[in-house]
Design a protein that fits this description.
Blueprint: E1 20-23, H1 24-31, H2 37-43, E2 45-47, E3 50-52, E4 65-67, H3 68-81, H4 91-101, H5 110-113, H6 116-126, E5 135-138, E6 141-144, H7 146-152, E7 155-157, E8 163-166, E9 176-177, E10 186-188, E11 191-192, H8 193-201, H9 206-212, H10 217-229
Antiparallel strand pairs: 1-4, 2-3, 5-6, 7-8, 9-10, 10-11
């Protein structure tokens, strides 16, 4: 991660969401994105003499340092990207969400779970098509979209609705990305998944790794699965 190790306290930055954790290549790796994708989404890009503004940031800053809030928002955008949604078409909705809910609206759960009527208005105002919906209406009731359901299944929140941990394989799996542990590197009980996967590739058995690091074999399997699927 950006800090390399967990040496700073919560008071070192204004909030957990504002905590600088990664650089763009790390975000691409952790979320399984093509190289350069997170930079385009977070800070915008220039192509053919045209500037394409960012989706995550209010405006381009040129900084390659990614905060925890930006990382979590990018993770949600990746859910929509996986269903073929063009990211630039998400920008108007994110702008309105930021206006109505403040900074990092995509990093929090309450706008989508507690304010669904307002989210519907945001969607209408920004003219999001059906593929991009955060919430949907079925039989007169408002439901979270499949993308939002998957995202919320992969993130833990504290009492202030700030995201504290991302669970890249789902919240029932042991792999955790915590900005306060190992500089935000994916771990299982504090053991980096990259270390476990690297040792396994080197010939160490899953049983030995589980014994050496006081983990279950299921834990080690999950570490290998994550590194193979997302961070390869």
């Amino acid at each position: 991660g950006y800090w390399g190790c967990n040496t700073l306290t919560m008071s070192s930055v204004p909030s957990l969401l504002d905590r600088p954790v990664y650089r763009f290549p790390e975000v691409d790796r952790l979320l399984g994105l093509r190289s350069g994708t997170s930079r385009r989404w977070i800070d915008g890009y220039d192509r053919g003499g045209t500037h394409y503004p960012p989706v995550v940031r209010e405006q381009s800053t040129g900084s390659d340092v990614v905060t925890w809030g930006e990382f979590v928002e990018t993770r949600l955008l990746s859910e929509y990207r996986n269903t073929g949604v063009p990211m630039l078409r998400m920008r108007p909705a994110v702008q309105i969400l930021r206006r109505d809910f403040g900074r990092y609206p995509l990093a929090r759960s309450k706008p989508f779970t507690d304010s669904r009527d307002l989210i519907l208005k945001v969607q209408d105002e920004s003219a999001l098509d059906r593929r991009m919906r955060f919430v949907v209406v079925r039989t007169g009731q408002i439901f979270l979209s499949e993308e939002m359901v998957r995202h919320l299944d992969h993130v833990s929140f504290d009492d202030s609705d700030a995201p504290t941990v991302v669970h890249p394989l789902g919240n029932k799996a042991p792999v955790a990305i915590d900005p306060l542990v190992r500089g935000g590197e994916p771990t299982i009980n504090g053991v980096p998944t990259e270390v476990l996967a690297s040792l396994h590739r080197g010939g160490d058995s899953i049983a030995d790794l589980a014994r050496w690091y006081d983990l279950s074999e299921t834990d080690v399997d999950a570490a290998i699965a994550y590194e193979t699927t997302f961070a390869a």
